[in-house]
From TrEMBL:
InterPro entries: MoCF_Sase_C, MOSC_domain, Pyrv_Knase-like_insert_dom_sf. Pfam families: MOSC. GO terms for molecular function: catalytic activity; molybdenum ion binding; pyridoxal phosphate binding. This is MOSC domain-containing protein. It comes from Pseudolabrys taiwanensis. Signal peptide: none annotated. Gene3D superfamilies: PK beta-barrel domain-like.
Length: 183
């Protein structure tokens, strides 16, 4: 995969309950078609509480949530203190512009796991419950378009263990770039 971006895993996080934040772990195990073993959002069908109430039979396009550590640096400059797992992500990354990836991009995490990017996370009011004003700090404008910076969602294609320090290799999909939409 010469020429494709390479980043690294900064932290991995999981929580059994539907908590806003997820504690950092030494490693997580990704399960094909399900998500993060032992995490509240693991499953073939949608597990996000709000989305599951709307359509419990919808496929789970949010099995693994990734967030870039560069966002933490950006909001820190605005006076907020955010660490890996605080905003509910499973994998905190560094060195890859997650928000600019194409829908369908494959990310190879470590030696085994492969996930496919499905779309953007839609930040909600709970971010302001965590730290007042943080929701606004994670949003931006690009002309008339609202830019949501709170990470991306994905599904697990190939399971495996993921640890801090693992490399992330980017495999773009064939065809034209398809901007990420909310999932």
């Amino acid at each position: 995969m010469t020429g494709n971006p390479v980043g690294r895993v900064v932290a991995v996080c999981a929580a059994k309950g539907h908590n806003f934040s997820k504690p950092p772990c030494l490693s997580i195990r990704l399960l094909k078609g399900l998500g993060v073993e032992g995490d509240a959002h693991m499953g073939e069908k949608v597990k996000h509480l709000f989305l599951a109430r709307k359509n419990p039979d919808a496929p789970n396009l949010r099995q693994v949530h990734l967030m870039h550590t560069e966002l933490f640096e950006e909001v820190r400059a605005k006076g907020f203190d955010v660490k890996p797992g605080d905003l509910g992500e499973n994998v905190t990354t560094e060195g890859i512009d997650l928000l600019d990836l194409s829908t369908g991009t494959k990310l190879h995490l470590g030696d085994e796991a492969v996930i496919e990017v499905t779309g953007l996370r839609n930040p909600c009011y709970q971010i302001d419950n965590f730290q007042k004003g943080l929701l606004h700090a994670t949003l931006d404008k690009s002309g008339p378009k609202l830019v949501r910076k709170t990470g991306i969602m994905s599904i697990v294609l190939v399971g495996g263990d993921v640890r801090p320090g693992d490399t992330i290799r980017v495999e773009p999909p064939e065809g034209p770039h398809r901007p990420l939409e909310l999932v």
